[in-house]
Amino acid sequence: MSFTQNAATAAPSVTPEAVSEQVRSWVAAAAKRPAPAQARMLADLLKDPKGLDFTVAFVDRVIRPEDPRAAAVELRRLAQDSPAFLPPALRRIFSFGAAASPLAPQVVVPAARAVMRRMVSHLILDARDAQLGRAIARLRADGTQLNINLLGEAVLGAKEARRRLAGVQRLLARPDVDYASIKVSSIVDHLAMWGAEETKEHVVSTLLPLYLDAARAESPKFINMDMEEYRDLELTLDVFETLLDRPELMGLRTGIVLQAYLPDAARALARLQAFAADRVARGGAPIKVRVVKGANLAMEQVEASLHGLEQAPLHSKEEADAQYKRVLLAALTPESLRSLHVGVAGHNLFDVAFAHLLLTERGIAPGDPSVEFEMLAGMAPGQQQVVRDAVGSMRLYVPVVSPREFDVAVSYLVRRLEENGSSENFMSAVFELDSSAELFAREEERFRLALARALREEARPTHRDQDRTAEARAGLPELGSRVLPAKPGRFANTPDSDLSTRANQEWAAAITRRIPSSTAGIAEADAARISSVDEVDAAIERALRGQSAWSARPVAERAGVLREAARLFSVRRAELLEVAASETGKMLEQGDPEVSEAIDFLLYYADRMEALAADADLRIAPRRLTLVTPPWNFPLAIPTGGMAAALVTGSSVIVKPAPQARRCGAVLVALLHDAGVPEDALILLDAPENEVGRALVSDPRIDQLILTGAYDTATLFAQWRPQLRIKAETSGKNAIIVTPQADLDLAAKDVALSAFGHAGQKCSAASLVITVGSVTRSRRFRSQLADAVLSLRVGYPTDPTAQVGPVIEKAEGKLASGLTTLGPGEEWLARPEQLDETGRLWSSGVRDGVAEGSEYHRTEYFGPILGLMHADTLEDAIRMQNGTDYGLTAGLHSLDPAEISLWTSRVEAGNLYINRGITGAIVERQAFGGWKRSAIGQTAKAGGPNYLVHLVDVADARETDEEAWLDAARHSDREHMATTFAARDPQDLHGEINVLRHLPVSTVIRAAAGTTPAQLRRVLHAAATAGADVELSVADPGLREVAEPLVDGAPLAVETAEQFAGRIGALSRTRVRLIGEADDALLEAVASRVEVALFTGAPVMSGRVELLAFLHEQAISATDHRFGNPLPHALDLVGPGGYRRGRD
């Protein structure tokens, strides 16, 4: 039975006027009580325009850093503009401390920290036994009850989770503690929502001893199950009910929190009411629901923005306030309270008065044990005392923390201070309600509007109702829908699966059950198997015949086929996840974003091709035949991206999947055929890697090759056929730098996820972490990293709780060496172990003491292995990070804007990540591709705006005389440099910056025989506009006179084709803009040094094309918030001029 009902049918006679009268009396009474000094200081802080920012910054940037020297830097910055709310004595302490901090940071910084801790000590208590005992006795002296919440280090692994649980057990064992809060996420290191049922069972078994101890205790012990993140709602409810259904816990009185700002709150309340009523009917004890507004809004908004999901909480403060009252109306009835007790939690005196008067109206006396009023310790103590006297009870929510871990209270303090300082929140007026008629009227009106809305409207349904099973049954989704939010010409990323919903949890479980017996793609892959060169020839001939008709279709029609494919992929998401897991060992959690990425490639490249074709300055011609050779590690997204890009240009495609991912390739090709790609325009070949495979790659009828794989593979293919245009994304040796200014818990978490996702088998994976200065000696960082790594659960995709899957094949050769053999001076922080007889399951390994220039520093191992390097300074760390042959991804963890600016100006990589993980690039948001040996050929970032340009042949759309052509080219260069190639964040997300910028790159301009002066002048202007440093080589001596006035002393050589080709191996620059035809000697020289990118094609007027030879793309992704709140300072990511927001 459910006791909830339409609030309008249960409208109380309590009026807003009666509520206001009650609040006035409480405010007047509280004003007569002396406010403690700390409370007065908090009030002054909130009044000071600089107070909130200063305090939050001090807590996060002076208290949090482990290194006193790092904290001293921030202390000096903050002291330059200390706010007026600080008493003169404290201002003098801060000023003196800031001045002395460079000389004695070990003395000054602890002193300054102690001052600030005293300022907030009424908000967070000292967890040490004696100090906590005194504080509890003081708070309970007047009859106030407490709810103790133990804070601690971020739970990244099982060790810290066990420690936190043991801490709560010790708290409840104290005779002076009878009530404590605990969160599911604080006692389990990983909540595997792709295995929701298994995770629930694990959490229940973990919590059961704690609940049994409470049930057996001589005096009552109450456990309140708390939660913050929306994703934990269903799991927490399931765990709570499963525990309390156990016979040995039927007599235990316990409770759970309910966040009213969630539209799901009404449904959750009804569920709890039914559960409680049934429990009491069976002889069990009542349970309690603690009703709060909700305090994780800022982070929920960030998560929704990043993942393309609807914000879980209600969208407006008025809606949330109305929902809170709606919940109280349904919960505070005599019938419901018999089995479901209520904690009315909050400081809004209007809500408290409303609940108090509502209870009186319904015949429930003050002090009735079925209802408690709850507030936060230290917030408006005078009002707390007055309310307690009126309502008969008061329970204070009291966070406690060990002084040595005080920094972990940062997020709690930030939330408390932000909600106190925000004008939308009642707490911003709490200290002035007695003196400001304006503020009282503001809060009175807000209450009146919210109450009217609660009585007028029913509860909203949940914002998060994604149901993959229902989507599949409904058929192809429309573009612009919640399933596929992109529209033609208005790209938007496809949301991943939301595992917070029950429907999706059941959908995921069904996929997991199908994995062992999956046959997806087997028949199609077998049919595509070939074993002879003749079959290669036949396939090529067939693809060439098919290309004519395919390329003849209008661009809009080809783009439409890709969009139709995106709709099919969406409907068949489960099948794609199943085949990737079955064949390659891809965990569902890793595979789901890959399906979204595949869909995004289809939709994004459709848009980009239509935009390219609409360029009035260009004539686009497709290349007849493209060979796509994708890898096994991303068996869905990468092959889809390669095929989609080539197909939409009008090329036919032969795709040869990796042998380990042939079934995945077969399923993808079948879906593309079903979407309308002709079978003769897209051909799947399962060719052996022998002379048959070589014949395919080497065939002169293949116009271009899209490869994702090892650098050595690109070199081999180039040497097989130097004339082949190779567009390759290759290897990476990627490092994350962690400085003393970093949030070390966040850094350890991101390092572990970046290193070991998909068992480290991502070319973007973190293979190195470089600790700077004191981080090298940090017990906190090392223990948190080791805990996170050692706790990673390893298994096959049939285990939905596993975080790290198998390596693709038995570890042998280089990978086996990396997993088992240390270099000189190295030692294991976490030793990898083989976990089964197949040689595919390995625990994650971390080696410490990796030396600069060592084998591990410079070698890509492609497995679950991470190395630690140590640098004295950030400059040293950057040198180490740049000190490999590759430049794919790079990360920095630092909250210091100056360090971030320095790093972004010097690091040599295509994808930069700041204060976040370095894997998981998303189409358009973080276009993917590297520098140096990580990118081969005339290519651009996959999923970026320039990728298709290099897959087609371009020419000027119209002929004109040379001078007019040059004038138009100069104008085009300037226009595109200022617009197309300006630094831009196309998506402008909440909480994350994602900028694509184009940097000048050193280039050799080679003017081959037949180059005209106008062509050379045109190319030189593009180089100058881009700001590129150039070297010039000309075959015709007469071009020297043309070039010299334009190159401003740059190196200039007159040399034959053979002489120039002979210099390729020694070039310091690795990009060549060739004007004219490439002779065999040059192509063979480049094939021997494939990192030299040869940009060919006749010069064109359009700067959209011509500037690309002189620009390096670089994508920068930076976390732009702390605990959901925007950073107080703008990040300088791209230097002077900044960047543009949005696509237009």
From TrEMBL:
Active-site feature positions: E729, C763
SUPFAM superfamilies xref list: ALDH-like, FAD-linked oxidoreductase
Biased composition (Basic and acidic residues): 459-471
EC annotation from Swiss-Prot or TrEMBL: 1.2.1.88
A single GO molecular function term of this UniProt record: L-glutamate gamma-semialdehyde dehydrogenase activity
Database matches in PROSITE patterns: ALDEHYDE_DEHYDR_CYS, ALDEHYDE_DEHYDR_GLU
Pfam families listed in its UniProt record: Aldedh (PF00171), Pro_dh (PF01619)
Domain Aldehyde dehydrogenase as annotated: residue spans: 531-945
The keyword NAD belongs to this UniProt entry's keyword annotation: yes
Catalysed conversion reaction: L-glutamate 5-semialdehyde + NAD(+) + H2O = L-glutamate + NADH + 2 H(+)
Claim: Coiled coil is one of the keywords in the record: no
Top-level EC class as recorded in UniProt: oxidoreductase
Keywords: NAD, Oxidoreductase
GO cellular component: cytoplasmic side of plasma membrane
Functional pathway: Amino-acid degradation; L-proline degradation into L-glutamate; L-glutamate from L-proline: step 2/2
GO annotation terms (biological process): L-proline catabolic process to L-glutamate
Chain segments carrying region Disordered: 459-499
Entry coiled-coil feature ranges: none
UniProt-listed InterPro entries: Ald_DH/histidinol_DH, Ald_DH_C, Ald_DH_CS_CYS, Ald_DH_CS_GLU, Ald_DH_N, Aldehyde_DH_dom, Bifunct_PutA, FAD-linked_oxidoreductase-like
Family statement drawn from the similarity comment of this UniProt entry: Belongs to the aldehyde dehydrogenase family.
Proline dehydrogenase domain segment(s): 134-428
Domain of life: Bacteria
Name used for this protein in its record: L-glutamate gamma-semialdehyde dehydrogenase
